[in-house]
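Morning. Coffee machine broken again, so started the prediction first thing and wrote up yesterday's gels while waiting. Chain of 96 residues, entered below exactly as on the submission form.
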Amino acid sequence: MKNTLYALLSLMVITAIIFITVLVRQYEIRSAVLEQEKEVQILSVVQLGRWGEWFQEYSLIVEEDGRRYRIWTDGDGKIVDSEVFGSDSGNNEGGP
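Came back before lunch.
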């Protein structure tokens, strides 16, 4: 019983550490993007790839002047590409 309790507690602690690590990393990416593009509103952040990969990329959905864009960043939050996202995707003028 005691070993089961320790195993369950250890699993909970490891899960909490992983969850907090992901949240902190997403906050860092959001902050880095907002430093580059102050006028955008970030709607979502998704990490591309899997755990343990050598490099990390992120995809963000942002809104600027009522238009939504998908932007891609490297692991440091530097924007590497963007495109219009949604119904007006035929018009690629401007963008973050």
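The first helix runs from residue 2 to 36. Going to sketch it on the whiteboard this afternoon.
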